[in-house]
Design a protein that fits this description.
By secondary structure, the protein is an alpha+beta fold. It has 2 domains: about 100 residues, Transcription Regulator spoIIAA (2-Layer Sandwich), CATH 3.30.750; about 170 residues, Nucleoside Triphosphate Pyrophosphohydrolase (Alpha-Beta Complex). The protein is about 25% helix and about 35% strand. It has 8 helices and 14 strands. The longest helix is centred in the first third of the chain and has 14 residues. The protein is elongated.
C-alpha cells in the first residue's frame, strides 16, 4: 500500500511564502500564517493596515478594527480571484501554535493567509461480534463541491467554524452528511489529531484534523441530507483501505482512515506506516 497522502500532507515550499504576523499593542507580533510571494503586490493597497518587508507581512491595526480590515481586504482579494471557494463561513483566526487571536475571518481566506484551521472527521464502521472492524463507510463527494469534487471521503467530515468545538462540528455534520442524529452517536470515540501543512490550489492548508471513530450497527444505512455527498457505500475493510492507500480519496480522508487502521491494527505493515506518518500524529484529541 502506497499511502501517497503521507507525503502530500507535508508538500510545502516554505521559500515561496512570506510569514504573516498580527501585531499586538503590548507584546511581540503573533505568527499566524504566511502569504505567497506572488500575492504580496496585491497587499500594497492597504498600508493603513499592513506593513510589508522582506521578512514578514504584519497586520498592525488595533484589535477592534481587525474584523473590518479583514472583511474589506477579503472582498477585494476575492474580486481579484486570490481568495477562492468562498463559503460565507466565519472561522477563528489562530496563531500557528493554535492560540486564538480574537477575530474570525472568512473560511476561504484562511488558505490565502496560510492560517491554521481545525477539522473534524469520523470513520464510520461496522464491527464483528468481537468488536473488530470489518466494514467501513466511504462517501463520495458531490461533483459540485468547491474543493475535491467527486473524490472519496470519510463518512463525516468538515471544518470547525467559529463558536464550535470539533465534537460540535462532527455532531452537526453527522446529520447533514449522513442523517445520523445525536442519539446515534453515543459510541463516538476519539482518535488522534492530524497536522497537515501543504500547498493546495487555494493557497496553504495548515490544518489540525480531529479524528473520531463511530461503530454503527449492521443494517443501519446513513443517508445524506445536504446534497454534498453523491453516494455512500459500505465496503469490506480491505477494499476500503486499498482505496484510502491510493489517490482516489482526499488527502485529509486518506490520513484519517490511516489513523483508524493503525489504531485498530488492521494493516500488515503498520509499523513502517506508523513511522512514516509519525510527524502527522499530534496525539490524542483534546
Amino acid at each position: 500500500m502506497r499511502w501517497p497522502a503521507i507525503a502530500a500532507a507535508r508538500t510545502h515550499d516554505t521559500a515561496a511564502r512570506t510569514p504573516f504576523f498580527v501585531g499586538t499593542p503590548d507584546r511581540p507580533p503573533l505568527a499566524v500564517g504566511s502569504v505567497a510571494h506572488a500575492h504580496r503586490r496585491a497587499l500594497l493597497r492597504w498600508p493603513q493596515w499592513l506593513t510589508l518587508d522582506a521578512q514578514r507581512v504584519t497586520l498592525h491595526c488595533a484589535p477592534p478594527e481587525r474584523a473590518d480590515a479583514f472583511a474589506t481586504m477579503h472582498d477585494a482579494l476575492r474580486a481579484q480571484g486570490l481568495v477562492v471557494a468562498w463559503r460565507d463561513e466565519a472561522f477563528p483566526l489562530f496563531t500557528v501554535q493554535g492560540v486564538p487571536v480574537g477575530v474570525s475571518i472568512e473560511r476561504a481566506a484562511t488558505r490565502f493567509w496560510g492560517s491554521l484551521t481545525l477539522g473534524a472527521h469520523c470513520n464510520g464502521y461496522v464491527a464483528d461480534a468481537r468488536g473488530v472492524p470489518q466494514q467501513l463507510w466511504i462517501a463520495r463527494r458531490s461533483s459540485t463541491k468547491a474543493t475535491d469534487p467527486g473524490k472519496l471521503d470519510n463518512l463525516v467530515g468538515g471544518g470547525v467554524p467559529a463558536g464550535q468545538s470539533p465534537r460540535d462540528t462532527l455532531i452537526r455534520e453527522a446529520w447533514e452528511e449522513a442523517g445520523l442524529r445525536p442519539e446515534q452517536l453515543h459510541a463516538l470515540a476519539r482518535g488522534r489529531v492530524l497536522q497537515l501543512l501543504r500547498d493546495i490550489p487555494e493557497g496553504l492548508q495548515r490544518e489540525w484534523i480531529h479524528v473520531y471513530d463511530l461503530a454503527l450497527p449492521p443494517g443501519l444505512t446513513p443517508r445524506n441530507q445536504d446534497g454534498e455527498v453523491a453516494e455512500l457505500a459500505l465496503l469490506p475493510m480491505r477494499e476500503a483501505l486499498a482505496l484510502a492507500a491510493g489517490d482516489e480519496m482526499t488527502v485529509d480522508a486518506s490520513l484519517v482512515t490511516l489513523d483508524f487502521a493503525l489504531r485498530h491494527c488492521l494493516l500488515d505493515d503498520d509499523g513502517a506506516l506508523a513511522a512514516q506518518a509519525a510527524a502527522l500524529f499530534a496525539g490524542q484529541a483534546a
